[in-house]
Specification:
2 domains; 3-stranded antiparallel beta sheet; 22 strands; 261 residues; alpha+beta; 33% strand
Length: 261
């Protein structure tokens, strides 16, 4: 009977982790470039009273055995890197990626992080940065006298200085791709860093080596579906309640045993 208490408790813990993931997805519904997560579970060890195929008599074996499961645990929380919907902003420094790939951002400690958030800004020196002031890599500096900015699908950044002068190229936006994007580590602020699971970044111009093209004047919204997350939340809540009922039922059965005279 004690096994049922512990087994149901692991189910409650697993559904709590599931609810935590769903809550984070819902909280970031309006976060540009956000990628939703999904909790994945696996069963725990089994108490084997009789192994399948174990001999039960002369020339006979157990066809199924007797195995009692001991619960569940959270095996992984996986990022879903499907593209989100595009949001038109008409801001010349807003850029989205139509396909695979990440923008490269230099963090304050000098490392390179990766993001799908293309809401770029311009600092006092004219350098292109993210919302937190981290520099876009490769670094791009816009001249103060520029009257217009053009970003091609291939990531070439051009500026217009005068009406009589042709556009001048001032930089190139390159994209990084990974063999296993789900292996990237989230560090907050819409940034990811590479790990041993993600592999080394493959840097190229947009449209090459499996990366998508970039589009100016729009950003990629979150790929969270509120309807799907609401359904997942209801399912997790009902599963949690069912496990709590199992704890209550096991407690009542133990109470009945204790009341025997």
């Amino acid at each position: 009977m004690i096994k049922s208490l512990n087994t149901a408790a692991t189910g409650m813990q697993a559904q709590q982790a599931n609810m935590d993931v769903i809550s984070n997805n819902l909280a970031n519904t309006s976060t540009v470039g956000f990628k939703k997560s999904r909790a994945e579970f696996e069963d725990l060890l089994y108490h084997n009273l009789k192994d399948p195929g174990q001999a039960t008599g002369l020339n006979s074996v157990s066809p199924t055995g007797i195995q009692t499961g001991l619960g569940v645990r959270t095996a992984a929380i996986t990022k879903d890197f499907d593209s989100g919907s595009m949001i038109i902003t008409k801001n010349p420094l807003d850029v989205s990626i139509d396909g695979a790939g990440f923008f490269q951002i230099q963090t304050p400690d000098g490392q390179v992080a990766y993001t799908r958030d293309g809401q770029f800004k311009k600092d006092a020196a004219g350098r292109v940065t993210d919302k937190n002031g981290n520099l876009l890599q490769p670094a791009i500096t816009l001249p103060a006298e520029a009257t217009g900015i053009e970003i091609t699908q291939a990531g070439e950044v051009r500026v217009i200085v005068g009406l009589s002068e042709p556009p001048r190229t001032v930089g190139q936006i390159d994209l990084a791709n990974f063999v296993n994007p789900a292996g990237l580590k989230s560090v907050g602020r819409n940034l990811f860093v590479q790990t041993g699971a993600s592999g080394q970044p493959i840097v190229s111009r947009p449209g090459l080596q499996g990366t998508g093209y970039v589009s100016q004047g729009q950003v990629e919204g979150s790929n969270v579906s509120i309807v799907d997350e609401m359904v997942n939340m209801i399912t997790a809540q009902r599963a949690y309640e069912t496990n709590a009922k199992a704890v209550q039922a096991a407690d009542q059965m133990l109470q009945s045993v204790n009341n025997l005279r």
